[in-house]
Amino acid sequence: MLKLKIGYPTKDEELKIMRRMAKTGEKLTLNTVVSSKKILDAREVINEIYVDKKLKSILSTWFLLPEILLNISFPTSPISSLSAPLPEPPSI
Predict the structure, then answer these.
(1) Whole-angstrom distance, CA of residue 76 vs CA of residue 55
(2) 49-68 b/e (C-beta count within 10 Å ≥ 16 → b)
(3) Among 48, 50, 51, 87, which is most buried by a count of CB atoms within 10 Å?
(4) Could you tell me how far CA 7 lies from the centroid of its own chain?
(5) Which of 88, 92, 61, 64 is nearest to 77 (CA)?
């Protein structure tokens, strides 16, 4: 899971975006903020993190709590378990 934080543009920035999007064929330039190698390296580190079964149980309850117990809308994603810790590796 990758978190991307995007804020809202200012009014001037929004006007620039509108002008730019009103044309076709204009080449946009993007700036790299992190290399793909760093992202892949970070994913490997995640595979090494141990999460206890008790914590996983608590987290799964937390993800389901709003809909099952409270029956109210809560700011968790319906697929929030996708960002939950991965299962523990098999014991050696």
Answers:
(1) 18
(2) eeeeeeeeeebeeebeebee
(3) 51
(4) 15
(5) 64
What's the structural domain count of the chain? 1
Alpha helices in 9-52 (DSSP H): 11-21, 36-47
Q: Examine the pLDDT at 39 and tell me if it is beyond 80.
A: yes
pTM of the complete model: 0.34
The answer to the question of residue 62 being in a domain is yes
pLDDT range class, residue 75, cuts 50, 70, 90: low
Domain membership flag for residue 3: no
Q: Are 47 and 87 within 8 A, CB to CB?
A: no
Residue 48 CB partners (closer than 8 Å, separation 6+): none
Parent domain of 75: 51-86
Amino acid residing at 70: L
Cα 79 from Cα 55, distance rounded (Å): 18
